[in-house]
Specification:
By secondary structure, this protein is an all-alpha fold. The chain contains three helices and no strands. The termini are far apart.
Length: about 200
């Protein structure tokens, strides 16, 4: 394996632990295979020792098997701890470097959260800007409609004023015609009176 310098980026603890466990298991399997080969081996024409228990010996009990498994597990854990310690020393991992790495991870998480927050704020600002533009467009439409309504109202007012003026003119004309008709009627009555008086005078004479 290629040695790492102190400046190298350490692998993740979980990944490192998995690799070390795999190495330990592989070493155990390799040792087991070597042990079997030794038991099977023998000199030229020689046979290995018999695996069957000799007469007079008792088979191992369940408690003995459990104790053996416990000791094997303890040995495996000790070997793993030793391997981990060696790996920490080889990689130059110290409590200070672990604290620095944790601080870097925390800072990266903080920066990531800050970036997410800034992105959310930017999206909110974009949404607010879009809403403001939509409101401005609605206001422009409303102002145009108001101007159109104002123009229509002004035109209607002018039309009503013109109609009123025409009505007043017609009324004045009607009044003048009435006066003319009254004057003509007075003149006609005067002429009729004069004619009657002349007729009466002619009858007296």
């Amino acid at each position: 394996m290629t040695p790492h310098t102190v400046s190298s980026v350490p692998r993740r603890p979980a990944r490192l632990l998995e690799e070390l466990l795999a190495e330990v298991e592989a070493e155990k399997r390799a040792k087991g295979k070597k042990g079997k080969k030794k038991k099977k081996g023998g000199g030229a024409g020689g046979a290995g020792p018999s695996q069957e228990p000799e007469e007079g010996t008792e088979a191992p009990s369940v408690a003995d098997a459990a104790e053996a498994a416990k000791k094997a597990e303890e040995a495996r854990l000790l070997l793993l701890l030793e391997t981990l310690t060696e790996e920490r020393m080889r990689l130059g991992i110290t409590p200070e470097s672990q604290a620095a790495a944790s601080a870097e991870v925390a800072e990266a998480a903080r920066l990531d959260a800050a970036a997410d927050e800034a992105e959310e704020e930017a999206e909110e600002e974009e949404e607010a800007e879009a809403a403001a533009e939509a409101a401005l467009a609605d206001a422009e439409v409303a102002r145009a409609e108001s101007k159109a309504a104002e123009g229509a109202a002004r035109a209607a007012l002018e039309e009503a004023t013109a109609a009123l003026e025409r009505r007043e003119t017609a009324l004045e004309e009607a009044r003048a015609a009435t006066k003319t008709r009254r004057a003509a009627a007075v003149a006609t009555r005067a002429r009729a009176t004069a004619a009657r008086m002349e007729a009466e005078a002619a009858q007296r004479s």
